[in-house]
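User: Sequence in, structure out. Go.
Assistant: Echoing your sequence, followed by the structure tokens.
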Amino acid sequence: MTRAAGQVRVFRSGRRSCYWGPTGSDLSKGLTTAQAATQARVLHPKEFSPLDTASTVVRRSAVECAPDLLLDLVRPAEAECPLPAIVWVHGGGWRLQDRTACPDLVQHFAGHGYVMVSIDYRLAPETCDPGQLFDVRRAVRWLRANAADHGIDPDRIGVWGSSAGGHLAALTGVHSGTTCLPGEELATVDSSVQAVVDGYGPADLPGLVDLSASTERSCRTATPGT
């Protein structure tokens, strides 16, 4: 979801409220949007993506990692060395939601020394499998290629997702050692990940659909005299 420059949006996720704008800021401490915007400071004015340094984290929002695909990144503001990164892959049946459908990236992760990244991927039915997997791998390659700019250890990138996102995370791990999948664009950057968390992702896809009725109809249609 792309937001126009200067646009402000307040949304709620569970008990938390967040402010998004040119300098997005977490409102969990009860700040008004004006106060949050005042306290946030832009570290790199030349960058097009908004930055947020409220509290002890730096937030980069709506960073373009591929054409029409964005990611949000949150990392500790102060780090003595490159940090491991966790890529969050949202659920939604491969056809709903976007990167904003994510857990609290700050409290449980960035606050404990991880770089958290929530990514978009193209949705079905406009994009068919394995396009979604290609997009996750593309995001991993982008993070690895730009690791130095975001304080990421390129040798410690993990992927985590739930539901459809868990399925994509698992596939990313299964194909971690594959340089280029059939139909995938050639790349010079490694797509591998060093850790995978599959949160209740579907594995037996044929088992999700009852094909007996459609198979029976096909048989009747193909049988002469029926």
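User: And one key feature?
Assistant: The CA atoms of residues 134 and 184 lie 7 Å apart.
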